[in-house]
Amino acid sequence: MKLFIETLGAIIIGIGVLIALFYLIKGLIPPQVESYNKIRLVLARYLALALEFQLGADILSTAIAPSWDQIGKLGAIAVIRTALNFFLAQEMKEERRAEQEPPQDRSLVPDPKEKKNPPLA
């Protein structure tokens, strides 16, 4: 059962890589990609899902007659994978928020249409 769930997690990662690669190639053929954030978000979603499956497989393998050594290893693995998943989710949330905000002009040249404040006397 553990092997099946781990294989499922690996398949999910493979599917995510293929879909992200498809979007990358689709965006590069006529160079139209302004930002690779959408591609990163697609891959991040699949990685987060695969991490959940991998953690589930580890929990399942430890649920059957665990030793203290196995419980310790599971705890360490769970903490690492949960931290990875947390930071991945945070980055996905930041990227979604950045996509929804209008682009800001970060040029150093002032806009001539912009009104200047009169100097104080």
TrEMBL record:
Which spans are transmembrane here?
Answer: 6-25
**Listed Basic and acidic residues bias regions:** 95-104, 111-121
Can you tell which superkingdom this protein's organism belongs to?
A: Bacteria
InterPro entries (alphabetical)? DUF1622
Which keywords annotate this record? Membrane, Transmembrane, Transmembrane helix
* Family annotation (Pfam families): DUF1622 (PF07784)
Specify where the region named Disordered lies, as residue ranges: 95-121
Q: Is Aminoacyl-tRNA synthetase a UniProt keyword of this protein?
A: no
Looking up PANTHER family in the UniProt record yields: SLL0939 PROTEIN
Can you name this protein?
DUF1622 domain-containing protein
This chain's source organism reads Rufibacter hautae
